Amino acid sequence: MIHHLKMKLSFLTLILISLFAYGADEITISKAFIKMPRPGVDVTAGFATVKSTSDLKVIEVSNKNFKKIELHSMKMDNGVMEMRKLTDPKLGPNSPLVLSPGNDHLMLFGLKEKLEPGENLDLTFVFKDAKNNKITKAFKFVVK
Ligand SMILES: [Cu+2]
After folding, report:
1. CATH H-level superfamily of 25-143
2. 78 CA distance to ligand 1 centroid (A)?
3. What are the domain boundaries of the chain?
4. Fewest beta carbons less than 10 Å away: which of 24, 56, 84, 124?
5. How much distance in Å is there from the Cα of 2 to the middle of ligand 1?
């Protein structure tokens, strides 16, 4: 009985510790997808909403099936769509990073192996927090 109680207590402690650690930097993603590239095209775009409980900056996004992934903004300039590299992609408790069609997006360059619709890709995000610590996290993107 005592042994059992001890087990329970240590289990509870573990849960509390992990909850605490998790709460420090909670990064979540939703609506994550990659546009199926057109036949013969090795460039495509990706979209997602990334939320964080703390202030972060995205410093790198990568996937082994692409040569390079950049964060872009999109603006209409005199009737011409203009894409620029996002210089300061930030997110925080009240400001998610919203990447959606026609707006800011991920640009994926140099597709190596053909994608299949419905396939999941892990995109690795590297963030930097306010104390300059690097946080690396992979998120699943579905190919649509
Ligand atoms: Cu772009």
Report:
1. PCu(A)C copper chaperone (2.60.40.1890)
2. 18
3. 25-143
4. 24
5. 62
